[in-house]
């Protein structure tokens, strides 16, 4: 158990005088004598949010007030997420001023009461500076601050919690209770289960222990129940187990085995999508799992040695395992389902400022907050792009000043904050852990002409991170001189100062690459020198200062292009417009980056035109190949390599008190050995934690097919052709063995066929149908799921069976009458204008085949009509065409005459995805074009332009595809997240 210390040096009481005299607050951003609100042009907007799938209005508030430079997306997210008070009542907040005043005035009042300011004048400057930074989107507090501060609710300001559990039933049941209360409040928690004895050890009563994995079931069920009780996102939790625990192999394989179960149930027709109604039948889906590995274990892996698993009660080795084999099992499980991640125990505790109090054993759900058990952390993040000056240099001075002001506010919040348990509250007040961080690093580096995966990019990121943490600890030492060090500092003073020197040494080891990072490194070096000197005299107010969080919702609040430490998601963006509508725009940092790289205006215009049309820079006119790396993104044609993500994390890790919320994404083709390399290299480079995600390894997401090649072209056409050819050969072999086959009508070697892409209830697929010379249907091939999966095999077999039946004379009408109206998941909305709703994939497939190959009379008898025919009925009262000549849809495809609108749309769907890109208007620059009608977020826009699937879940609130943000996912449309950020 972690100890907490309380005693003589507790925080000052309200109104108590302080020996240090309080802080002098310098006015930097605001203007004396002018309130920050008066410098801004404000406008009224209507916020109406709908679920695009159902058409249901999920939120509506009209006439809300925001600065005119805030995007529609930012104002929508703040209005829906952070405005307090019941809708339609006078108590409802209606302006950004309301929530900023609510928070800032609470912080300022507490700062006065607890003696943080030298005078009332300093308090007023603090209030106006903080207000200016918030309304100008320079930084944002984490979501619980906006939810709770200044309201009648408990003043909870922390998003991240670490719990503790011992080897007793009382402790285990208390874990369930505490976790439940945290989830109820919309936050997340993590803990280490390694104190619980293994299933290979005996109880004092003589029986065998259950083991931690069995108790995980109860906690997982609790999390799932609370989630389904009204939360708008999954319960966020982390479960950690030490690598030397005797049940480690069972823990490693837990989620991989459940993933096999999910696949089997999905293939049997159950709804196993993330948030699906049947997903609750499987276990362990509400937590991220991590293995806590030691240097001893990792060295044993390198050397191929055995490793001892130890009894929890006695510490004796009860089993020897092959370290390399165990490491391989970790990688195999991660390859199969993305869990478990790794946390590097010795590295974490080597940077621990409070080892005399207790070891760091756990983390929050996204692995960026790592501290004592029963503790919490409140976060705030700065928007880095706001500190890029007009000459494309980073304003280190103003950045440091902003960091110090924000850090002061964060520490003040602990004075008045409420906490979910008394133990968490006591530890937080005694150690005052803070988590200052940043967002928009990817956009900043691009605007400066620096590649994310380059030495220049990594050096700049390291310098900024070093300056941020140095500024935080400098202010922490200054606060210690004013309001005293944290309660646990005295017993940990030597260790805390040792870690400060480690940060300083890491800063000194960074070498400037080019002039743009030199001033930042110089400022960081000066800050760390002050940290070490001030710390010797004053101590420190805070045990921890910094980390890098996902910044999902608050990133959108600040109109950031990129979240946390992440690179840019894509080069094209989806932008909402005031009054409705949307634009497809090219990332606005691209023209600035091109200018920085020395391109002329006409060259920039041509390159931007090319990006608008293609979504990438490969072969862009006039763009030098050596500059491609500047425009590398998380997704798309030039997606960053996995080690590029690892190296960026390694560059910043030595300058963070905590860790980094980030997932290393790997392509679906990645091997187990590549995952082993990522985990091993992360340890060698000094990371505290690593999580991986292999594309399409999980079932709990929309099915996706058709990844493009590295030119951004849709590979589905050729893939479907090869798929079509293979089953055709099988059909030949099967039919040749049938002795009663004289009536088979063979298809010609070369036949007319069509390929239709479709989406049913979020599941994507492709159908290729081949016709006889008379236009009648002769074969079909369905592609669903990934090649080699059970679903793909079942679809191949089903296609063969239907094709054989058609060639032996079974009428298509018979199949249509049998398979339409069959109900099973996935079901719901489709992307086909002729078949808007479908009760299952088979229901859709045979309705589409009827529309394509049956004459009007046959379809009418079955009640199947096209959109055009239904419209005609509304206008004339009759479905029948004006001229009935018996021509079938299949014959129209073969004829040279223009195809009907519905068929033209299908033909377009079968073409490479580039053909679907909406061209920009004929204007001087192609930075904006009307967004494609089927896209609702940047993730969906990227899919349409590049032909590559974005492997992420759909938002529970608005139904759009989310995008990765650190170790979580965030919805660009409404700000909902899948984690605790």
TrEMBL record:
Its EC number is 1.17.4.1. GO terms for molecular function: ribonucleoside-diphosphate reductase activity, thioredoxin disulfide as acceptor. It is an enzyme of class 1 (oxidoreductase). Residues 46-137 form the Ribonucleotide reductase class II vitamin B12-dependent N-terminal domain. Catalyzes the reduction of ribonucleotides to deoxyribonucleotides. May function to provide a pool of deoxyribonucleotide precursors for DNA repair during oxygen limitation and/or for immediate growth after restoration of oxygen. This is Vitamin B12-dependent ribonucleotide reductase. It comes from Nocardioides eburneus. Residues 748-852 form the TSCPD domain. Pfam families: Ribonuc_red_2_N, Ribonuc_red_lgC, TSCPD.
């Amino acid at each position: 158990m972690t100890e907490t210390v309380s005693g003589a040096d507790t925080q000052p009481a309200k109104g108590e005088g302080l020996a240090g005299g309080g802080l002098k607050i310098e006015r930097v951003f605001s203007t004396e004598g002018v309130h920050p609100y008066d410098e801004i042009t404000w406008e009224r907007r209507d916020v109406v949010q709908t679920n695009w799938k159902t058409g249901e209005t999920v939120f509506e508030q009209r006439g809300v007030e925001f600065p005119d430079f805030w995007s529609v997306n930012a104002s929508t997210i703040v209005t829906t997420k952070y405005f307090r008070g019941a809708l339609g009542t006078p108590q409802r907040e209606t302006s950004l001023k309301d929530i900023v005043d609510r928070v800032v005035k609470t912080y300022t009042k507490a700062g006065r009461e607890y003696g943080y300011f030298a005078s009332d004048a300093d308090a007023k400057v603090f209030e106006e500076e903080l207000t200016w930074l918030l309304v100008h989107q320079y930084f944002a507090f984490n979501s619980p601050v906006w939810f709770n501060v200044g309201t009648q609710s408990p003043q909870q300001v922390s998003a991240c919690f670490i719990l503790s559990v011992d080897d007793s039933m009382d402790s285990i049941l208390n874990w369930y209770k505490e976790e439940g209360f945290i989830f109820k409040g919309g936050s997340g928690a993590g803990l280490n289960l390694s104190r619980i004895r293994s299933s290979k050890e005996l109880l004092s009563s003589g029986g065998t222990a259950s083991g931690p994995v069995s108790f995980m079931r109860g906690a997982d069920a609790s999390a799932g129940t609370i989630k389904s009780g009204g939360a708008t996102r999954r319960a966020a939790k982390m479960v950690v187990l030490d690598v030397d625990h005797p049940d480690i192999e069972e823990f490693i394989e837990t989620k991989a085995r459940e993933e096999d179960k999910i696949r089997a149930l999905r293939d049997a027709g159950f709804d196993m999508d993330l948030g699906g109604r049947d997903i609750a039948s499987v276990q362990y889906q509400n937590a991220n799992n991590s293995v806590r590995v030691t240097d001893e274990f990792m060295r044993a892996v390198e050397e191929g040695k055995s490793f001892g698993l130890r009894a929890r009660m006695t510490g004796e080795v009860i089993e020897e395992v092959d370290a390399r084999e165990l490491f391989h099992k970790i990688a195999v499980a991660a390859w199969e389902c993305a869990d478990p991640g790794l946390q590097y125990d010795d590295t974490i505790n080597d940077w621990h400022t409070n080892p005399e109090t207790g070891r760091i054993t756990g983390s929050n759900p996204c692995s960026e907050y790592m501290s004592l058990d029963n503790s919490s952390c409140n976060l705030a993040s700065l928007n880095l792009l706001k500190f890029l000056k007009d000459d494309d240099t980073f304003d280190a001075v103003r950045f440091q000043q902003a960091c110090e002001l924000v850090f002061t506010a964060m520490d003040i919040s602990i004075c008045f904050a409420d906490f979910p348990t008394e133990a968490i509250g006591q530890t937080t007040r005694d150690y005052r852990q803070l988590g200052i961080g940043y967002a928009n690093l990817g956009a900043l580096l691009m605007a400066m002409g620096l590649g994310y995966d380059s030495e220049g990019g990594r050096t700049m990121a390291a310098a900024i991170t070093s300056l941020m943490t140095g500024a935080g600890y400098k202010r922490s030492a200054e606060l210690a001189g004013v309001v005293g060090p944290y309660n646990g500092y005295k017993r940990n003073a030597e260790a805390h100062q040792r870690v400060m020197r480690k940060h300083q040494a890491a800063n000194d080891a960074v070498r400037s690459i080019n002039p743009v990072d030199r001033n930042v490194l110089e400022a960081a070096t000066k800050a760390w020198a002050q940290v070490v000197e001030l710390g010797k005299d004053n101590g420190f107010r805070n045990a921890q200062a910094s980390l890098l969080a996902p910044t999902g919702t608050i990133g959108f609040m600040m109109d950031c292009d990129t979240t946390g430490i992440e690179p840019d998601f894509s080069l094209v963006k989806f932008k909402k417009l005031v009054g409705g509508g949307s634009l497809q725009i090219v990332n606005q940092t691209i023209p600035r980056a091109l200018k920085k790289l020395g391109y002329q205006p006409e060259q920039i215009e041509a390159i931007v035109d090319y990006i608008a049309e293609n979504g990438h820079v490969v072969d862009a006119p006039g763009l030098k190949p050596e500059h491609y790396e500047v425009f590398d993104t998380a997704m798309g044609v030039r997606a960053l390599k996995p080690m590029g993500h690892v190296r960026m994390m390694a560059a910043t890790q030595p300058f963070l008190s905590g860790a980094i919320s980030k997932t290393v994404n790997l392509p679906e083709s990645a091997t187990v050995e590549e995952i082993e390399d990522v985990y091993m290299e992360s340890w060698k480079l000094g990371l505290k934690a690593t999580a991986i995600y292999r594309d399409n390894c999980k079932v709990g997401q929309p099915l996706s097919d058709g990844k493009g090649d590295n030119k951004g072209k849709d590979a589905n056409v050729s893939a479907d052709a090869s798929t079509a050819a293979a089953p055709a050969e099988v059909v030949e072999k099967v039919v040749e063995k049938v002795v009663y086959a004289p009536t088979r009508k063979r298809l010609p070697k070369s036949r007319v066929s069509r390929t239709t892409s479709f989406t049913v209830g979020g599941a994507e697929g492709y159908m290729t149908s081949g016709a006889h010379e008379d236009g009648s249907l002769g074969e079909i091939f369905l592609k669903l799921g990934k090649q080699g999966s059970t679903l793909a095999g079942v679809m191949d077999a089903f296609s063969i069976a239907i094709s054989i039946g058609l060639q032996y004379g079974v009428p298509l009408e018979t199949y249509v009458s049998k398979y339409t109206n069959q109900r099973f998941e996935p079901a719901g909305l489709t992307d086909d204008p002729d078949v808007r709703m479908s009760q299952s994939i088979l229901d859709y497939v045979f309705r589409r085949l009827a529309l394509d190959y049956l004459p009007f009379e046959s379809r009418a008898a079955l009640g199947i009509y096209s959109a055009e025919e239904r419209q005609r009925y509304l206008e004339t009262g009759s479905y029948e065409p004006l001229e009935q000549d018996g021509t079938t849809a299949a014959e129209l495809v073969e004829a040279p005459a223009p195809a009907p609108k519905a068929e033209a749309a299908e033909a377009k769907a079968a073409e490479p995805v580039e053909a679907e890109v909406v061209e920009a208007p004929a204007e001087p620059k192609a930075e904006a074009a009307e967004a494609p009608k089927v896209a609702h977020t940047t993730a969906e826009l990227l899919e349409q332009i590049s032909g590559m699937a974005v492997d992420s879940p759909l938002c529970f609130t608005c139904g759009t595809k989310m995008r990765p943000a650190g170790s979580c996912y965030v919805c660009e449309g409404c700000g909902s997240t899948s984690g605790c950020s």
